Protein 1
Amino acid sequence: MLTYLSNYQDYKCHINDSFSSNHFVLSYRFNDHHFFKAFFKMIFLDVDSIVPVLQPLYSHTGRPAKFQIEILRSFILMFHFGYTSISKWTTSLKNDPALAILIGCHPNTTPACTNHYDFINRIFQFYSPEDIFPPNKNSKPKLKLKKNQKLPETKIKINDVVDFYSSGFTDHDRPEVILQQLFQILAVNSSIAFNLINTNNDSGIIISGDGTAFHVHADSFGSKTKHLQISDSGPTNDPIYLRHYSDPDADIGWDSDLEVFYFGHTIYNISHHNPNLHIDLPLFLTFEKASRHDSITSISSFVHFSSINESFHPSFYCLDSASDNYPTHHFLLKNNVTPIIDVNKRNLGNNLYAPHIGISENGKPICQAGFEMAPHGSDYKRYRHKFRCPLKCGKVSSCDLSRSCSSSDYGRVIYIKFDTDIKLFGPVPYKSDKWISIYKNRTSCERINNRILNDYHLASSRTRGRNRLMFMTHMIGINIHLDALYKMTKS
């Protein structure tokens, strides 16, 4: 039962009272920059706005739940101070009065380790996957992949995913939706309020998506367990042998950076880069199966992010070549978002759009002499791009076919419609100056992944289970937003 959630005013009174009675304990700690930054984060954390999200998770009867907001602050500070073990962190809380005061508790009454785990279970509404599976659940694929290659699509196809979400489905019943709503309120909406994310940008909001491999410290084979077969007449003497998995949501995927198969998950983030403040902010975080193709996750993540924050309207969505397919382009354009997607060179082929005119690996028409034609603007009223002779535009110094190709001083001109090949000649042509400028923002995803895994030490965590790992990733994401706010106030 939830009797009361402490609000921001309660926290300020608590800090003032604690500073008066524990002046010596707190005053010298403020000389530590790391501690002062933690205090800054707690002061600027808007907990009042999440009360409507938390209240429905509790019963109207039963034993009162204590320290719920304090536990949330505790998790955020846990990663700020570099802890990845809940038990070690709660021990530090109990033994360090300053940390206890910082989360909003009296030094002698801090929440226990089990209270922290119970809070995670409540956020996921006590959802738990089955942990008993057949012995061959995590069989290793017999494929030989190279660096930067992805596992091919298996059971789920991108066409089916696009059709599913185009029909209006948004997966509102997924267990992590409450956690993602909390992250949206505490991190994303707060950063918008402090103008860390400019939603009124005339040139359009740019978001980017990318995944990274997360290796789980668990045995992919599980542990052997014996079960008795049950028939109509009762248990039989022939047992069956299954396997118990400590991380049942994990499976086998391909780590394209290390060029190895691994057991774990894929962390996928949608991020935003602020070029004026030079900061990267995660907008949406999720954990997916390691075997799942990034092209599928990029669509599902975009839909889930849009359903949580309906007021956020991005203009461009940057993705790597794993999402180079027609269904993704058409789906995003249908949702008023321009896809900025790198082309998979294997998909270019030798498509011809005019007699003797081919397409280069940079997505530009090739003239009869074998040169890339020069982009010369776009006609958005007629939905077409204009390309001129590279010799007349000064891109090449000489051409053997200059006389036979065209007698015009302006040179030969090629017009290509947007819908000729939407991947190359969409609203923003592939490898155009504007395309290159926008696509540079995609590196923000890589920096976010690095902060999560290395700066906040999630890669070294011994935690298992998608729910707990996903919860911890979102706590790190809130820290990243608060770090950006701290950087802005100091600049």
Protein 2
Amino acid sequence: MFMEEAGLFKGIASHIINEMAGIATEAVLPGGYVVFNKDDVADYLYILEEGEIHITFPGRRSPTIQITDSGNMFGWSALVEPNKYTAKAECVKESKVLQIDGDRLMRVFENHPAVGLLVMKRLAGIISARLVAIDQERVA
């Protein structure tokens, strides 16, 4: 199953992965499709299966974050209050994604707090690494 290979969920027990898979849907999105815009209500977390997604920050001179590796996550705002996307996500080419309902995923975490804590720690690490990369690109 693809979900258990995604970095955010790697090593999680299969019965919990199955719970999460039950709230995920697979979508094939065309090139040019805007997955979400900055300030939209953040309902879904996304895991890239294949394709390419660019994350941009409209109105700012920040670099583009390119999501190209299978298993990479975007749309983390679905798991963090105030649940509004902080950037724009657009498919550069046709892309296949897993779309996971953020509210329902948080309920899974409430039922399995140790897993929830692990995933949120990983999420914080991903966000931190992206912020460091953006900062380094600004300096370069």
